[in-house]
Amino acid sequence: MIKILAACGAGVNSSHQIKDSIETEMTNRGYSVQADAVVVKDITEEMMSKYDIFTPISIPDLGFTIPIPVVEAGPILYRIPVMAIPVFDALEKTIKDNNLK
Amino acid sequence: MTDTHSGKVSTLFLLDSIFLSEQTTKEAVFKDVAEQLVQKGLVKENFLDNLIKREESFPTGMDLSVVNEFLPNIGIPHTEGEFVNTRCVIPVKLMTPVTFNNMINPSATLEVSFLFMILNNDPGAQTNILSDIMGFISTVNPEELNNFFNYTDTEKIYQFLQENF
User: Fold this and answer.
1) CATH number of B4-157: 3.40.50.80, 3.40.930.10, 3.30.1700.10, 3.30.70.790?
2) How far is Cα A54 from Cα A7, in angstroms, rounded to an integer?
3) Rounded to whole angstroms, how far apart are CA atoms B71 and B24?
4) Which of B51, B64, B78, B143 could make a disulfide contact with B71, Cβ separation 3.0–4.6 Å?
């Protein structure tokens, strides 16, 4: 199971949309993924160490070096393929490059 | 989602909570709208402070030129569920475009002409409000959508949303 951490400022809208979209699309592409949606300010190094990929809207300043691969997922929010597909492709490349399962 | 043809009415929009704002900064727009939302009991007293703080750290301007080059940009300001009392969308027509920072590229600015202010005290709900807003933007005919963004009559705004959202 590949664990993905989605995050946004309030944790009530954007990150949930990113989580749902990633789970749906990556499952369709044949990957076993689980995404969680959190508020950026709640992220700690310890929390992040439990995930394989971080998918914020844009890279936030967390006060520590992000120890896992990052894929900026903001374009998914547009809900149009021309914006979302490059994000999903980047996610798939990250999964393959890091041999995540 | 609304489907007036089948008799359903969206509960996401409230006819008496659609605003036109003459303010020229996002802070002033937020203050203007938030004071009315507090009076209506839709948000808590500390909503405004948290909305402004959140917008500074995590901006919500969205560049719609990537959807259609003729569409004006929108903002989707929102804050944590603990500061609101309901789950709905507050449409705000900005009579003068207001500068927001871009949600996806926060260091960039853009001029925004319409807000869909999201109030959501139930983030676990099955339907995602932001997703529904973007679905509305990406599926309604761009010419009709452009006309909608120029409406200055709150009843017309409400009606269009009921028919198309």
Assistant:
1) 3.40.930.10
2) 8
3) 20
4) B64
In the structure, what pLDDT confidence band is assigned to residue B9 with cuts at 50, 70 and 90? low
Nearest CA to A10 among B156, B86, B122?
Answer: B122
Q: Which two tokens stand for residue B28?
A: 């002033």
pLDDT confidence bin for B10, thresholds 50/70/90: confident
Which A residues, 37 through 56, put their C-beta within 8 Å of a C-beta on chain B? Answer: 37, 39-40
In whole angstroms, what is the distance from residue B105 CA to residue A75 CA? 10
**What is the number of domains present in chain A?**
1
ipTM of the shown complex: 0.85
Structural domain boundaries in chain B: 4-157
Three-class SS state of B32: helix
Domain containing residue A68: CATH number: 3.40.50.2300
Closest alpha carbon to B100 in B87, B116, B88, B84: B116
Please state the rounded mean pLDDT for residues A32-57: 95
In 3D, which of B136, B132, B135, B129 has the Cα closest to residue B157?
Answer: B136
Distance CA B58, CA B106 (A): 7
Q: Does A13 touch chain B (CB under 8 A)?
A: yes
Contact residues, chain B, for A13 at CB < 8 Å? 76, 78, 118, 120, 123, 128-130
Task: Note down the domain range covering A29.
Answer: 2-97
Residues A78 and B134 sit within 8 Å (Cβ to Cβ): yes
pTM equals: 0.90
* pLDDT above 50 (res A34): yes
For residues B155-161, give the mean pLDDT.
97
